[in-house]
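Why does this matter for the project? Reviewers at the last site visit asked to see concrete outputs rather than summary tables. In response, this paragraph embeds two records directly. Each consists of the residue sequence and, immediately after it, the corresponding structure tokens. Nothing has been edited or filtered.
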Amino acid sequence: MKYCIECGTELILKECGGEGLIPFCGACGMFRFPIFSTAISTAVLNKEMDKILLIKQYNRPDYILLAGYVNKGENAEATLIREVKEEVGLDIVAYEYMRSLYFEPSNTLMLNFISMADSEDLSRMSAEVDQAMWFTLEEAAREIKKNSLAETFLLAIIEKLNAGKVDLLKPTEA
């Protein structure tokens, strides 16, 4: 950030009590911590946990994980459930938080989950998704967009699944 989000004054870097150099607005007298978007991504599994749903969107050629932005006032778990329902028409019956990574191109903190859908029925898929397809774990690893954040998340999830270390929670348990 170069300018104050409130008044537009150019920010200067100023020491902020152990936080290091933080952008500061002299006109407002306020520190302006970095602002970024927050989104979730998820590897949607079938009930047997042997298939992963990958999607294509926005006329792009590569398969990715299902993802979406967290709305104001919404927690990440609610976003996960809402986004899966909106995009592919599936209900999430269990999930587990994995990890987060920052995605610089869109200035977004991505919160990654493993989730389990109620079925493999893709007949209620929205127009927001160009294509959705269930893959085995091995196929998903081959088909996911290479050198992407989605691939990083997916490979970690597959490793965890193969090690038998997945502990999904039902949405009411969270």
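We now turn to the second protein, recorded in exactly the same manner.
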Amino acid sequence: MKEHKGMRPQDVIILLKLAIDGEEGSRIKDISTKLFISGSEVSESLNRSAIAGLLLPDSRTVNKDPFLKFLEHGLQYVFPAQLGPVMKGMFTAHSESSLYLSFSSEEKLVWADELGKERGPTILPLYPTVVKAVKKDRILYRLLALCDIIRIGDPSDKNKAVWHLREAFQGRN
């Protein structure tokens, strides 16, 4: 039996990417390249997620119901977000362009990025390579922005974010 060392922030990102890409995008090398996370970290993450029951047995298919429950009930406690200084960056949370009309906050939140065109209070992303990865993957960007709403939003916004995540997962194998 393998020892479970607890979830790490990159596990959430890797599981979201697997949920988007399904089996065809589940090779460690592919995940590593797309997310800018080392192959060994991806492998360790997949092992942690399998032990936690967030992957279906003997596969790299996300066990979506438990994963959504973790995001809804655990994400904000395991990986809380705090607001940082105002900086240049890339919009996140309810400020992400496909989401801002659905959520009530006026505050424009960003992930710090020196090449960013936006300004606002910062949220530390779940993993340092997130900004680089989402520039090539709009769907992952939206899902991680929803996760930031869960990490920092009010209860109403958190519920809406979970609903959006559930909708995004439906129809994906």
